[in-house]
Amino acid sequence: MLSSPHHAIRTALQSVVVAMLVLGLKSLAYWLTGSVALYSDALESIINVAAAGGAYFALRVSARPADAGHPYGHSKAEYFSAVSEGVLIVLAALSILWTAYPLLFNPHEVKAPLLGLLISSGASVINFVWAGVLLRTGKARRSPALVADGRHVMSDVVTSVGVLGGLLLAKLTGWFILDPLLAALVALNILWSGYGLVRDSVGGLMDAAVDPDTEKRIRQAISLEGEGALEAHDLRTRHAGALTFVEFHLVVPGEMTVEAAHAICDRLEDALQLAVEGVSVTIHVEPQEKAKHQGVLVL
To answer: Residues 48, 175: one domain?
Structure first.
């Protein structure tokens, strides 16, 4: 069963608070050290705040029921949140590169790094714990917005670990050029993260089909529970946030009554709802002469 949409909305609101706390800690770490690598880390946290706010707004919109103007509901609103997050990530990465580039030719010593590193480490621990919460809730709710936010926060943790290790190495060796180099690597990692978010979200907006494993479960349910029908063809699937839409043509014997065909459709809908969470099924019944002898053979 899908968790309550109110639970997902509450999680998104809590994510805003957590992101602001982490931003404050990382900004303090940058202010204490003057490290451009920690600046880049703090800048990514600004994106986390904006992304969490966007996810909260998108989840509120997606929770609205279907209406006359939106008969399929509002669940695609979550994809817009994820795309917006991807755009923000790209802008942040470009800003980091702009700041780091001149320091590659004129590196400077990082001030008082130990306290700054400890504060940044604490922020990373908070991020790690919260990323796990977001990913678990997002998968349970099948929420693209929460999953995207969780993946981004987890990538922030990986970035922070790399930055902290590199800065410690710079202090021990005196190779202060590691600071802008790490900032540039952070920017490239952020760009890759943004690309992944945009790619997945655009797939949802473009009505990409379900994954092969889900399609296999759909076909098995139709084959096993469609007793009385002959075949199912022209199967089409798509995702829209937490919903999965399934459409197909069901071929039945020409002499079958409407009532009997309707009973088969009801049985198939029940089977598909057990096989795939949050499924919406549309079945077009056709007589035997419409058979294509392809698709799903009913057992």
So the answer is: yes
